[in-house]
Protein: Replication initiation protein
Amino acid sequence: MGNKKTDKVANAMAAVSQSPFKLVKSNPVINARYDLSTIQVKILLHMISKIDHTKDRLDTITISVQEFKKITGISTTAIYSRINIELDNFLKKTIYNKFDGGLINTTIIAGYTYNNGLGKFNIDFSPTLTPYLLQLKTNFTVIDIRSLLQLKSIYAIRFYEFCKESERLGTFKFEVEKLKDILGLGDRYAKYTDFRKRVINVAQKELQETSDLYFTYEEKKKANTVVLLVFTIHRNDNIAVPNDDGSIIEATFEVVNEHKKKTAENKDLSEILKLVGEYGASEDLILKWLQAYPLETIKETIAYAFAEAKGGKTIRNIVGYIIQLLEDDKFAELLKEKETKQKEEREKKRKAHLEKAREEGLNMNVFNLKKKYHTYCQNRIIELLKTDESCYQYVVNKLSTSLETQFPFESFKKYYSNTVSIENIIQYLDINPSFNGAIISIVESAYRQQIHAHPDAIALQKEGKKIGINLL
Structure:
C-alpha cells in the first residue's frame, strides 16, 4: 500500500493536469525575483498550466497564435511580430530565489521555435526549473489561471499569488526592501511613498475590484522609516472563482488545506481562550462551548457580556455571566434577530451588487461589441488592400496628395526608407495610431458599401441593435 498523503498529492496533480484552468506553482517560484512584463508573465502562467504533472520530465509547450490572442489580449494584425518581440525579451529574463531549501538562478525559458504552417509557437522551459515545476510533493499552491489572466497589472498578479499561497493562514509579511527585490524593481521607486502608491496600492485596488482575494496591509516602522509590511488576506464574497470541475477541488482540498483542517479546532480554542482565559475560563470549558454552540454565537455572547460590563452593569463573575447568557433562550432569540437583520442587510447589498454587475455587464457588452466591430472593419480594410489593386493604388495616391495624411505618411516613409508596399502599410498600422486612423478613413470613405454591407458586418450590426446601439 502506498502512503496516503503521497497518493492524495498524486491524485491532486493528475486532476490539475487534466484541467485547462488549474495550474500548480511551487512556492519558491511564487516568491522568486523576476522582472517580466504583464504579457510575459501571462505567457509563463499559461505555460505552467499546460504542464503534465503525471510525467517525469518537462515537455515542450505548444501555444497557438489564437491562444496567444486569448491569454494576452493582443488582437492586432501584427500579432506575429509582437509575440516574437515578447519572446525574444523573455529569453533574456532570469528568475532568482535563495531560500531554506536551496537556490534558483536561471533563465525562465531556454528557447522557442515557430511553425509557420501550423501557426504555433513551441517554447521550452529552462531544464533547471524542472524540480520547481514538475513532480511537486510539498510547498506548492494550486491557482485557477482565470483568476490571474483577468488581471491587468503585473503587480496585481504577483500579489494575488502571494495571497493564494498564504490564504489558509490569512496573513503574510515582507520586509519592504525584500518585497521590492522580489518584484524585480531594482532602483525604481526608491522612495517608499512612490512604491506604496504605484505598486502596492495599484495591486490592492485591482484585486479589490476584480478578484476573489484581496489584501489590506499595516506598515511597521523603525526610526520613522517603514521597514516591514504585514498583509491581511480577505475573501471578496461578491466575486466567485469559476469552478470547471468539482473533482479537482475535491482532489486538492485535503492537500492544500491539510494544515487548516488539522489546526481548526485548536485555532478556535486559542481564539476564545485569548478573550476569556484571564477571567478563569479553562480549556475544557471552552471545548464544551465549541461542541455545544457555533463559534460566532460564543464570540457574540462574549462581546455582549464585555459591553454590559463596560456600560456599568455589575458582573462579579464574567465567565458565569457568559454561561448564563449561552443557556438563556431569550438571549438566543435576541442573537437570532440580530443575525436575521444582518442577513437582510447582506441580501440588500448582494442584490445591489448584482444590479450593478448587470449594468456593468451591459456596458462591457457594448464596449466589447464596438471593439469587435472596429477589429472587423480593420481586417476588412486590410483584405481589400490585399485583394483589390485599385483600392491599394487609391490609398497610396491619397496618402501622397492629401494634406491631412502628409505627416503620418512622411513618418511611414522614414520608417521604411521610402519603400512603399502593401506589406509595409499593413505592418505599420499596428505601429503608428495616426497612420492607422488615416488608412481607415481613406478606405471607408471610398469603399463604405464593401465594408459595412458585408454579411459579417450586418451580423454584428444586428447584435448591436439587440442591445440598443448603432455600430455604423
Summary: Residues 244-263 have pLDDT under 50 and may be disordered. Residues 329-387 form the longest helix (59 residues). The CA atoms of residues 77 and 227 lie 47 Å apart. The beta strands are 22-26, 61-64, 94-99, 102-107, 109-115, 120-125, 140-144, 171-175, 213-222, 225-235.
